[in-house]
Design brief:
This protein is an alpha+beta fold and 552 residues long. The protein has 3 domains: 113 residues, Rieske [2Fe-2S] iron-sulphur domain (Rieske Iron-sulfur Protein, 3-layer Sandwich), CATH 2.102.10.10; 108 residues, 3-layer Sandwich (Rieske Iron-sulfur Protein), CATH 2.102.10; 235 residues, Naphthalene 1,2-dioxygenase Alpha Subunit, Chain A, domain 1 (Alpha-Beta Complex), CATH 3.90.380. The protein contains 14 helices and 29 strands. The strands form 7 sheets. The protein has a 7-stranded antiparallel sheet, sandwiched between helices. Strands 1-10-9-4-3-2 form a 6-stranded antiparallel sheet, with no helix packed on it. Strand 5 and strand 6 form a beta hairpin. The longest helix has 17 residues. The protein is globular, with a radius of gyration of 26 Å.
Length: 552
C-alpha cells in the first residue's frame, strides 16, 4: 500500500467536498461529521469536477447534469449517472488525512464497477497532450488512423474532438473556412455608407463595411503588404482603410488604393514597374444577407442561405426576423474556457435546461412536460430548441421532485419581468436556434439577441452577444426588452450557469484525458428531431454532420 497525505482534517469543511490532485488524478474528499471519505474526482457521466458539486445527506451531486453518487460507497444513485465512482481507503495520522489510491474503501457496502483503465480507454496510443502534438506532427501517420471514432458510434464522443490542436486547426479549414455561411453582423450595425464593424469568421478577423453604393462587403483584417491588422477600432465610419504600419490604403470594397512612395524617391526604390495593385487587394469573402442578418463565406459558389438553412430552420429564423427592421440595443462580450462545440451542444441539449437552470424551471420557461421541440435540420448541423411557457401551477409534483433546480416559492421583485407580449407568428415563447457554425439566435419571450461564436483554440472561445429590438418598438417595448435582457449575457439569470457548466466539462477532459462522453438519451431517435426534452438526439445529429465534414 502507498498511503499519501492529501489534506488536513481542518481543510475539509463539514458536509462539504474538497478537490485535490493526487499524482495527476483529481480526487474528491468529503467530510461527514468527523468521518472523511474519498472518491474519484470526476463525474462518470459528463466528466465534470465533483469538487464543484453539492453535498447533501451523504450524497454528492454533479454540478453539470445533477447526477448523484453515494459518498461512502461511490454508488451512482440517479440518472444520468449510471457508472459508479471509484472509492479510496482513508486513514488519519493525527489531523492529517491520508489515502491509498490502490485500495478501495473498506466500508463500501456496494462494490462499484472499477473505472476503466485510462490508458486502455484511449483511442490512440498517447499519454498526454505533448505526445499528441508529437504524434500529430508525424506526416507518416494517416489522419484516420490517429483519430478513431469509438465503435459504439454516435452515442460516444471521444475527448480529442474537444481538446486536440490538430483537430481544431482542421475545423478552421474544413468548417469555418469551408462550405458554411458564417454570421458576421446585423445590417443595422452598418446602416450608412462608410459604417464598419470588426467581426470574425471562425478565429479569422474580418471587417464588415457598407460601401458608397450601399453594398455590404466583408474582407480579412490583414494588410496585403506585411500582414498587419489594419482596422483597429471595433466600429466607426470611414472613407478608406489605412494600415498604420506602412500607410497602405484600401477602398471600401477592399481594393488596394494607395502605396506611399510606390515609385520611390529620386528614381530609386519603390515597387517594381510591373507591380499590379489590382492583384493585391484585401481577401474578400462571399456575402449574403437575409432580413437584416449578414453572413459571409470563404466559398464563392455557396448555396443560397435559404437552402443552407433548410425549410424548417428557415421558418424559425423568419419567425424571429419577421420583416421588421432590427434596431441595435447593445452588446456583451466575454471569454469562455471551453471548446466552441460545447456551446452548440448546450443548446441542442434540452435535458440540461430542465435541470441546471433554476430560473427556467421555476418560472415555467422550459420545463419537462412543457409543449416543446428539439428540432434538427436534415443535415444535423442546425437546430432549434423551442418551448411554450407554462404556468407554475401546471407543473406536477413528480416533475418538481426530478427538477432539483426548481425553487418553490421563489418570486420576483419586478413582476413585469415575466410578462410575455405576443408579437411573433410562432407557437413558442422560447426559441434558441443554432445556425452552424457560429450563430445562435435567441428569442426568450421578448428579449432578442444573436450570439456569435469566435473560437481561439481547442480550449477557449469568445462569445459576442448583440441585443436588438425593432424599429417600430415604442419606448415601453424597448424598456421591456432591456428589462428581460437580464436573463442573458455573461452574468444573466440563465447565461451564468451555462458558462460554468461548459468550464466544468472542459476541466474534466483536461484533468482526466483520453476518455469518452456518453450521449445515449432518447434512443428511439437515432439522430435528429425529438419532441422530448429528455433527449440528446440533436447532439448525435450534429456529430454525424461534423464527422462527415471533417472526414472522420
Amino acid at each position: 500500500m502507498a498511503w499519501q497525505r492529501v489534506a488536513s482534517l481542518s481543510e475539509i469543511a463539514v458536509d462539504a467536498v474538497l478537490g485535490v490532485d493526487v499524482d495527476g488524478s483529481p480526487v474528491a474528499l468529503y467530510r461527514l461529521a468527523n468521518e472523511v471519505f474519498a472518491t474519484a474526482g470526476i463525474c462518470t457521466h459528463a466528466m465534470a469536477l465533483l469538487s464543484d458539486g453539492f453535498v447533501e445527506d451523504g450524497k454528492i451531486e454533479c454540478p453539470l447534469h445533477q447526477g448523484q453518487f453515494d459518498i461512502r460507497s461511490g454508488k451512482a444513485l440517479c440518472a444520468p449517472a449510471t457508472e459508479d465512482l471509484r472509492t479510496y481507503a482513508v486513514k488519519f495520522d493525527g489531523d492529517e488525512v491520508l489515502i491509498d489510491m490502490e485500495q478501495q474503501a473498506e466500508f463500501t457496502q456496494v462494490i462499484p464497477k472499477p473505472m476503466p483503465d485510462r490508458q486502455a480507454a484511449r483511442n490512440f496510443p498517447v499519454t498526454d497532450t505533448r505526445t499528441i502534438s508529437a504524434t500529430n506532427s508525424d506526416p507518416e501517420l494517416a489522419l484516420m488512423k490517429r483519430y478513431v471514432w469509438p465503435a459504439e458510434g454516435l452515442t460516444r464522443i471521444p475527448d480529442w474532438v474537444y481538446t486536440d490542436q490538430t483537430i481544431y486547426e482542421r475545423e478552421v479549414e474544413k468548417i469555418f473556412h469551408g462550405r458554411t455561411w458564417n454570421y458576421v453582423a446585423l445590417e443595422c450595425e452598418v446602416p450608412n455608407p462608410g459604417d464598419f464593424i470588426r467581426s470574425n469568421v471562425g478565429p479569422t478577423p474580418v471587417v464588415v463595411v457598407r460601401a458608397a453604393d450601399c453594398s455590404i462587403n466583408v474582407f480579412e483584417n490583414r494588410c496585403s503588404h506585411r500582414a498587419a491588422e489594419f482596422c483597429r477600432e471595433l466600429s466607426g465610419n470611414t472613407k478608406e482603410f489605412v494600415c498604420p504600419y506602412h500607410q497602405w490604403s484600401y477602398d471600401l470594397h477592399g481594393n488596394l488604393a494607395g502605396i506611399p512612395f510606390r515609385r520611390g524617391v529620386n528614381g530609386k526604390g519603390g515597387m517594381p514597374a510591373d507591380f499590379n495593385a489590382a492583384q493585391h487587394g484585401l481577401r474578400r469573402l462571399n456575402v449574403t444577407s437575409h432580413r437584416g442578418v449578414v453572413f459571409a463565406s470563404y466559398v464563392q459558389d455557396m448555396e443560397p442561405l435559404q437552402d443552407y438553412l433548410g425549410p424548417e430552420v428557415l421558418k424559425e429564423f423568419e419567425a424571429t426576423f419577421d420583416g421588421r427592421k432590427p434596431r441595435l440595443l447593445g452588446y456583451y462580450r466575454h471569454t469562455l474556457p471551453g471548446n466552441w462545440k460545447l456551446y452548440h451542444e448546450n443548446l441542442k441539449d434540452p435535458y440540461h435546461a430542465t435541470l441546471l437552470h433554476t430560473f427556467l424551471v421555476t418560472f415555467g420557461l422550459l420545463v419537462a412536460g412543457n409543449r416543446s421541440l428539439m428540432l434538427a435540420d436534415a443535415t444535423g448541423r442546425h437546430g432549434v430548441m423551442a418551448s411554450a411557457k407554462s404556468e407554475r401551477k401546471s407543473i406536477s409534483t413528480d416533475a418538481k421532485k426530478e427538477m432539483r433546480a426548481y425553487r418553490d416559492g421563489m418570486t420576483l421583485a419586478e413582476p413585469r419581468f415575466m410578462d410575455f407580449i405576443e408579437e411573433f407568428d410562432s407557437p413558442w415563447s422560447v426559441t434558441m436556434a443554432t445556425i452552424w457554425p457560429n450563430l445562435i439566435i435567441q428569442r426568450e419571450m421578448n428579449t432578442l439577441g444573436v450570439r456569435q461564436i469566435v473560437p481561439t483554440g481547442p480550449h477557449e472561445f469568445i462569445m459576442k452577444w448583440t441585443m436588438f429590438g425593432f424599429e417600430g418598438d415604442d419606448d415601453e417595448m424597448t424598456r421591456h426588452r432591456l428589462r428581460q435582457g437580464n436573463l442573458m449575457g455573461p452574468a444573466g439569470f440563465l447565461g451564468l450557469e451555462d458558462n460554468e457548466a461548459i468550464k466544468f466539462v472542459q476541466d474534466g477532459m483536461r484533468h482526466v484525458p483520453g476518455r469518452q462522453h456518453l450521449v445515449k438519451l432518447d434512443p428511439a431517435v437515432a439522430a435528429g428531431t425529438s419532441d422530448s426534452l429528455i433527449s440528446e438526439a440533436s447532439i448525435r445529429a450534429m456529430y454525424r454532420h461534423w464527422r462527415a465534414e471533417m472526414g472522420l
